[in-house]
Design a protein that fits this description.
With 455 residues, this protein is mostly helical. It is built from 21 helices and no strands.
């Protein structure tokens, strides 16, 4: 029974968080406003059947369709529809929604999936969102303890952006989940290096790249970190065995190759010419984001369009707006307090401020303990993905911020855990002081009496 206690100590809150998140997400499935992107994701669900039936067929030929998106989000939609008893052929002749036409035209021409298919795709993502909350919980638990992980997971569940992405049919939740699982794996790998964890890290980043391409660049950063460990070696050593650090370097340096192989394995389009076709995909995505930049900005004061023209500072400013003002858990909490207690103080900035402070604490831990630590592994993936998003951002959609939100919530967990430990230490010190004073008052008058006893 004692062996089960540590497992139950983690499993019970994780399962409770999953149940809370799933119930919350499913409750929003029919409330979320329809977005035409959902039609395309659900319309691509048939790719799962094509993968199984004919992975060498014409479906996978070089075209705008195959260059447009990696396949894992489409496979997820196909799996979700299949498990819910829906057909993966959701449109006439599998023709996709035409963004140059209005909704009614697409319905008349058989390009709009049925409402039940859209809802099935949304329910699929509700499960993904619940799994993401559990992954955030475990990241926080590994970095800051059980309470920090639980608070970070709850912050995610009730965050407006996470709620929206967990109740619509798309691939952004799946991307955030693969990044979170990769970060969790990196934390464990840096704590106790092993080839199994190293290979799993590469596979998870490859699956992330098969959802959206950006994690492939994060895998490159992991490989660069491995090379740095091999080259720098002992100058970076902080109480760790040099051979262990060198071994971790070799493990990390294989990550880009494993991630690339995983991406190619999932996508028959890449089988025929992996390098050239991958370059086609990156070029297509870059051109598409440039075109999307002409879309007028809605709900983003200070910007006329969603184009991110100001480079890295502009991209960071967009993150500050979305996660520090418009779509923050602090805003939800402030609205609830206002409705119950006439709360008038704005706290929309709360999770962004706490998260940034926590990431700063993690960076200090890396400086003090060296990069081969849990904090080093978590920061490598979470901040690596954040920087890749910022550098590559050409158009500003709120959904691009979801992996950045995961990084911020890791920081929230660290601040909660550090604050809790500080409070416990203070309480222990106060109790010890009171106990010491109490003992002195009781023992002092008894000493003379004890000396009068017969020997």
């Amino acid at each position: 029974m004692r062996r089960l206690l540590p497992i139950l100590r983690l499993a019970i809150p994780a399962l409770a968080l999953f149940a809370i998140a799933l119930s919350h997400n499913l409750g929003q499935v029919e409330e979320t406003a329809f977005h035409r992107d959902e039609s395309r994701w659900v319309g691509r669900a048939y790719l799962l059947d094509e993968l199984i039936r004919d992975p060498l067929g014409d479906t996978w030929n070089d075209s705008d369709f195959t260059r447009n998106q990696p396949p894992l989000g489409s496979y997820l939609m196909g799996l979700g529809l299949t498990l819910q008893g829906r057909d993966t052929d959701t449109t006439t002749d599998n023709r996709l929604y035409d963004f140059n036409r209005d909704f009614e035209w697409n319905v008349r021409n058989g390009r709009q999936p049925a409402g039940e298919d859209i809802l099935a795709g949304r329910r699929t993502n509700a499960v993904v969102g619940a799994l993401l909350a559990v992954a955030v919980f475990f990241i926080g638990q590994q970095l800051a303890g059980l309470t920090g992980g639980a608070i970070a997971g709850l912050f995610l569940v009730f965050n407006p952006l996470a709620t929206h992405m967990s109740s619509w049919a798309g691939a952004d939740g799946l991307l955030a989940l693969t990044v979170a699982l990769a970060a969790l794996t990196a934390i464990r790998l840096f704590d106790r290096p092993g080839w199994g964890k190293a290979l799993l890290l590469g596979v998870l980043l490859g699956l992330g790249a098969a959802t959206k391409l950006s994690p492939l660049l994060v895998a490159g950063l992991v490989g660069a970190m491995g090379g740095a460990l091999l080259i720098a070696g002992r100058p970076w050593q902080r109480g760790a065995d040099g051979a262990r650090q060198q071994g971790l370097g070799w493990m990390l340096i294989t990550c880009p190759a494993v991630a690339f192989a995983t991406l190619v394995a999932t996508y028959p389009y890449l089988w025929r010419s992996p390098i050239q076709h991958l370059r086609n995909m990156f070029a297509y995505r870059n051109d598409e984001m440039e075109l999307q930049g002409d879309i007028p900005a809605e709900g983003t004061p200070g910007w006329d369009s969603i184009a991110v023209d100001g480079g890295l500072p502009d991209a960071i400013a967009r993150t500050r707006f979305w996660l520090g003002e418009a779509l923050s858990t602090g805003r939800v909490l402030g609205d609830w307090l206002d409705g119950r207690f006439d709360w008038t103080i704005g706290i929309a900035w709360l999770d962004l401020a706490i998260g940034v402070a926590g990431l700063g604490l993690l960076a200090m831990m890396v400086l003090l303990n060296g990069p081969v630590s849990r904090a080093g592994g978590g920061l490598l993936i979470l901040l690596g993905q954040t920087v890749v998003i910022w550098v590559g951002m050409r158009a500003d959609f709120d959904r691009y911020q979801l992996p950045i939100l995961v990084a911020l919530l890791a920081g929230v967990a660290v601040v909660v855990g550090a604050s809790l430990r500080a409070c416990l230490r203070l309480a222990t010190a106060v109790l010890d002081r009171l106990r010491t004073r109490g003992v002195r008052r009781w023992t002092a008058p008894s000493l003379p009496w004890r000396r009068t006893l017969p020997s």
